[in-house]
Amino acid sequence: MKQAELLSHKLIYSRTFQFFSGFFFVVLLPSLLMWKVEGVVSPDMIKLNSQAGVACAFSLSLVSLHKLMGFPEARKALYILPTVLAWYGGLVFFFFAFRFGYSVYYIFYSFLAALLFFYFTYFTVVRHVFYHIAYLPLGRAEPHPELPGVRWIKLEHAEPLTTHVDAIMTDLHASIPEHWQRFLAACTLQRIPVFHYKRLMESLTGRVKIEYVSENEFGSLQPSVVYCFIKRAADIVLALCLLPVLVPVFVVLTVLIRCDSKGPALFVQKRVGYGGRLFNMYKFRSMHVNGGGKCFTESSQDPRITKVGKVLRKYRLDELPQVLNVLKGEMSFIGPRPESCELSEWYEQDVPFFSYRHIVRPGISGWAQVKQGYAAELDGMKKKLEYDFFYIKNFSLWLDILIVYKTIRILFTGFGAR
Fold first, then answer.
1. What is the tens place of the pLDDT at every residue in 357-369?
2. Distance CA 402, CA 379 (A)
3. The pLDDT of residue 8
4. Secondary element (H or E) of residue 272
């Protein structure tokens, strides 16, 4: 790739270019079409409020989408509408609550322009982006051709790069010859990031390999104490807001469960939770009473599951009573799913560091659930644990928002249910 092509590639995919082009299309263009040049140059208070608010909503939407799309996920276009709608909806609510003057038509036109801009950018640019990752064939740094959206480039010689490269992967713990060390230093000066192969694979797969944990300092998997506090406060507020809405749903589901099969509507089971402490987890009963069998669901055709229970499980309605566990501080809305005592004892014998997932509160939904679905077998549990480690290591608001998005999609599709 020639130098001019390299520059054009960097320009098109740069966040700075996307911001200024989007700012013109979303903020300035609707202003010019509605109020002409005079309204933009000499705006009154209503126009000024509207333009400032729209600029903030667009900027926050851009930042949010960049953050969300930084996580491993194939269907990233699904994030655009809810993200833009949330920020523009928040803008209107802010103006309405504090009684600031604003133009409804301008905000609406800007909202449509923002959707058009983000979808156009995604389908013409982001969707077709391949990460060009060069790798040094040293140590354990090897390409993974099965990963979508990645093109691997093997570095044969320590010479200046003549093609576009987004990152360089190598085994930094291996013995690297001096000429390759000088090459990596030169790449760093050119602002080409150099990653240890473990860190790069985590970001591409959304999993932290169990064998990597044994070689890492546990400090790298310590969740943020500040965000733990913020998240707990948000859980309480959201649970209190949801309870009045959920009570009628609880009544209807209770009647359906009792009419479908004998036994109580609520199922209470001991689970291992935060800090390894046991607690009673609440669920709507989806199985026949005294059905026997294993302590976990063997398949979606498990004969113990009732007719109503199949629907409850498919759309995760059986998990709704866990809002009470959230209020009691035993669970969070987002986090690793809590396991039964029997399964926990089994996994701890065969899966290294299984108990480390208890460093955060278990959740009603989690990264492993939205990426993998249900898993009870040992091999599936190891993969689930790798997703849990990734969640703990990347414990943040953005990852929680992404899980919420994917959970809402699962509620309509029934992905991964048993």
1. 889 999 999 998 8
2. 26
3. 46
4. strand 266-272
What pLDDT shows up at residue 381? 77
Which positions ≥6 away from 347 have C-beta within 8 Å? 339, 354, 378, 381, 385
Could you tell me if 80 and 115 are in contact, meaning their C-beta atoms sit under 8 angstroms apart? yes
Q: Please give the structure tokens belonging to residue 326.
A: 């959230």
Amino acid 158: pLDDT: 84
Angle at 310 between CA 262 and CA 328, to 5 degrees: 75
3-state secondary structure 303-370: CCECHHHHHHHHCCHHHCCHHHHHHCCCCEEECCCCEEHHHHHHHHHHCCCHHHHHHCCCEEECHHHH
β-sheet bridge partners, residue 282: 268
Neighbouring-strand partners of residue 154: 135
Question: How many angstroms separate the first and last alpha carbons of the chain?
Answer: 50
Using an 8 Å Cβ cutoff, are 29 and 54 in contact?
no
Specify the amino acid at residue 73: E
